[in-house]
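Contributing new records

If you add data, match the layout below exactly. Sequence lines come first and carry their own label; structure lines follow with theirs. Keep one chain per record. Anything else will be rejected by the validation script.
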Amino acid sequence: MTHVTPLANRRHLAIEHDGHQRQFAALWLRERCPDADTLDPRTGQRLIEAAELPLSLAIESAEVTDNRLQLSFSDGHRTAFDLDALFGEVPSDPPRRLWDAAGAPLPQADFSAACEDDSALLEMLEALHRDGFVVVSGVPAQVDGMQPLIDRIGPLRRTNWGGIADVKSVANAYDLTMTQRGLEPHTDNPYRDPIPGYIWLHCLTNAADGGDSTLADGFMAARLLRERDPEAYATLTRVTPGFRYHDADTHLESEGPLIELDSYGTPVRVRYSNRTEQVPALPPEELEAYYAARQAFYRLITGEELTLHLKLNPGQMLIMDNYRLLHGRSAFQLAGGVRHMRQGYVDRDSTASRRRTLRQRFATSQLKGEPA
């Protein structure tokens, strides 16, 4: 049963449909009218200039026929919405599954299958979105062995490191990743704009003593901090430190909170980089609050409650969500053998686009009873 009630001089519309109640602004409905006069049928892009609609726009009439909301607006336009679609409008991504060490998943994928089969590729990308990481096996033991799978998703992000770069101990290292030192949990490159979305870490050999990878779910850390210390959580969403990297040929700077929220107040990105953070000289009271909050967050992301330990084998690759996961490694000794990784970046837009288009294609094929 559906009930429709105009409100606020007919500039709002209250709708009760299948037990759910929502209010819609007349302007919002008008600019999203699903008809060919408002939206281009092929591209779905808006044909009218929404900013030129009269701010006093009202709904002249509203009635429901065969599960369709028939509307007439004060500018003379008429349209019809499918009620299920109107109420079912949700973000195009499924929810993420947050985890701690005890409940950590271990999503896995096969390199050849993901390269050759779209359903296997979609399964890998869905796991990456859901869990924040995936371990891919069977990667060719070549310096650019990951490239064919990257080509299935989007362009390789080139940086001052190049394209796919070595991660191994070298003499006169120009970055701490190129040493045998253990690395604290961190996100990569918060000094870039945009920050690389996904890290691809391919193991060529890992015979050194130590060198285990660590992962922590930054969104779970944010949730626990909000539950256990709301003031600290609020501080890390409000205070905006800077991040900086420079060498002889590069000078990069950016800024952003350690916990970044979207318009709904949900964490969408975490930043943590002890090596590159540059906190501004804020008032002492605010700095004291920030340092205490940062310490509370640090204890979460380094504690065993959230830390997952992995040791990659030759031919395995770890793909990580750099907006969500914090990664690190234990120190290693070369007396036991060589540790040689190759690392590349792929941005979020191409990765998300590939996942969504594959999902839509398979969903459409299932509805039509056709093979995907």
